[in-house]
Amino acid sequence: MTGVAPAGIRVAGVSKSFGPVGVLHDVHLEVAPGSLTAVLGRSGCGKTTLLRIIAGFVAPDAGTVALDGRPVVDLPPERRRVGYVSQEGSLFPHLDVAGNVGFGLPRRLRRARHRVDELLELVGLEPGLADRYPHQLSGGQQQRVALARALAPGRRAVLLDEPFAALDAELRESTRRAVAAALEHAGTTAVLVTHDQGEALSMAGQVAVLSEGRVVQVAPPAELYRRPADAEVAAFVGDAVLLQATVRDGHADSVLGTHPVSGRPEPGPTTVLVRPEQIVLEPLVNGGAPGEVVARVVDATFYGHDATVRLRVRSGSGEHPLPDTVLARTPGHAAPEVGTDVRLTVQGRVTPTGRRASG
Amino acid sequence: MPATLTAPRRAGPPLGLVAAVAVAVLTLVPLGFVVVASARAEPGAAVALLFRARVGELLVNTVGLVIATTTACAVIGTAAAWVVVRTTVPGRPVWVGLLAAPLAVPAFVNSYAWVSMTSAVEGFAGAVLVTTLSYFPFVALPVAATLRGLDPVHEESARALGLGPVAAVRRAVLPALRPAVLAGVLLVGLHLLAEFGALQMLRFPTFTTAIYDAYESSFAGPAAALLAAVLVLLCLLLLAGALRLAGRSRLARVGSGTARPRPPRPAGRATPLALLGLAALVALALGVPLAALGRWLVEGSSTAFPLAELGLATVTTLGIAAGGAAVTTLLALPIAWVAVRHPGRLGRLVERSSWVGSSLPGIVVALALVTVSVRALPAIYQTTALLLVAYAILFLPRAMVAIRSALAQVPPELDDVARSLGVRPAAVMARVTLPLVARGLGAGAALVFLAVVTELTATLLLAPIGTDTLATQFWGHADAVAYGAAAPYAALMVLISAPAAWLLTRRGVPGGLS
Fold first, then answer.
1. Span A9-226: which CATH code?
2. Domains of chain A: which residue ranges?
3. For the ABC transporter domain, which residue ranges apply (chain A) (predicted)?
4. Looking at the partner chain, which of A44, A58, A90 has a beta carbon nearest the beta carbon of B8?
5. Which CATH class is domain A239-352?
6. Mean pLDDT calculated for residue range B174-198
7. How many Å lie between the alpha carbon of B417 and the closest alpha carbon of chain A?
8. ipTM value of the model?
């Protein structure tokens, strides 16, 4: 925006405890200049603390934070040139939109209206809003103003702490798009903390999964979804069906049939991940042919565009024990009736989760 | 994650914390004086001074007055608040204002009004009457506020569970009023223990008046100090008793949320009785003093309007009150800041200690400051600065509570955001925090200003020779039974105090009573 080059962020070996409670344990994270990284985790996993350590509001007990290779742990927040957008936006209630956006600018620039208008335009807001006060704005508008304010003084990076969590579903989607577009246009390095898998997968170029204060996996969204590091990550980033399987010759045999696998897993027993949308349901013809996988619909939850169907497998293939139930996602118009039997096939590759099947 | 994680502060302990601890130490000076003076007193002399019939009489008088007046205030205040908030008596908004109005008449002016009309009010019964009429708003206002804020759902649930209307009130409403009543009673009790002017004028000796007399006859001798120790002990007993009665319920206002308003109940056949009661209360508490003042202003034989003296006393009073308000607000700021932003053990300690000084009677605070300044800092004895320090100790919580509630509404994230925008902590204070608490600062300063205007006891002891305020001038004339000459000063005090009473009844004024 103002000629400030985006900085790369490197977090190395950061640990933090509050009293006896360990919040972060030896956290490492690399964020490339100009990229958007999402830190994904359940509430209480330490992701906000990580963000506040990068911003300089909290000092780590151990480890370093570097911007463009220069350590900043000893710099107070006002000298790091890192913008911060909080969950509620935290607009200054005594200042109007122009006053908020211009807050971090040098005094002579604060009055220059074109700067404020430019920034409002960047986040997709009308310049006419400049005279409004925060309480006159919707939640989504407040968040956009907060982002404009964070970008105004030329920040090397912007940190966003669950910026959409307080918005209702409809506003959340449009605000997300506006923020993503503004960040892309500004070219700033950004770190987004969120507990929303869809948000992390759809907005970020890189997702870091944080669990109980540890980074469990850092990967691009598609890879994270398709090849999660373990069963827990698999279940966290989306619905997961985990099946006992045996790998041989680049294929995995499970109760649902023989599937191609991704990667080059070692042969032998393992657990494979199947996403519910990979499971295809078809009507059973004449009670089913031998070798087909047949399942009975236990219940179905209808969402409109699609439906999730819980099934009990009645006859499977191979020697593996029948799983309790499996979850399938079908287009809404094709959802089967509860109590009927369907034919079940798996499309695409399955992913060994690296965990040996037990029992 | 909780948002209250504190930012790294690398420049040692924050300046605000150091300032708050310093202020807390200052507020503890009077208590320290009492403890040291009692410890130093020669045991034999102390026993001789304390265990005598006179002290027994003071004890009976003081305790009796506190019990009788707090009980009367609790009953009358709660009943008046109930009628005004929960029934459909005509003219309810006017009555609410009238219930607060007695606060504009200082107790010693009220007492002067009664005693100047009939000497029958001298003694115990008169003391209970006059102090009750002066102090019942301290119960009525918080109870009215609580009643207004109570969510009717509790009473409705009680009815749905099969309780009759009376039982529902007794078991679902009265317990909710308890904290408000107790807070009011505590306030009344502390005022009674501190009351000097009103009781002196009614010739009803208590520890406070006796300390004043001892001070007049033998300056800050051991007699005054030992009596002060007993008085402080009574204050602490009262505080402890109130805390014990309150149990785990908060001693603060309750029910500030936005509950569904409850439609008032028609008073029906009780309407005339309720109106009569309210009218009698207001006539006695407000009508009598105003009528007496009016009478003395118009027809008193000693009434004089020495405009120069009146003007000078008014200017002096306003100046001292402005100074007191400024100093007190300034000292309250770090305490409020620590209470909100460092809610640890130290923060709690600092905040509570600021209440100790103000719980002590003005006479004890003044005595302590006289003694300490004469012995340790003779340069400030007999200066306005020392008087302002006394006001700060006495009225610190009024400013602190107002600032604290304003500050509590400023999320700490605003500081974080401001700093991430490249603004240094001092500038964050100036550009974010102060503008946001300005209203709280203003309300706190106004409350202190108006408290100083009607402060009598500490002003009598500490005002430098030649510094005459409205209160001291009034006292000089009234004490000499020149009722007419005292009247203009009293009228000016009432005029200046009226906005205070109004401010206290405003809903949402931090530190106010409703």
1. 3.40.50.300
2. 9-226, 239-352
3. 9-237
4. A58
5. mainly beta
6. 89
7. 6
8. 0.79
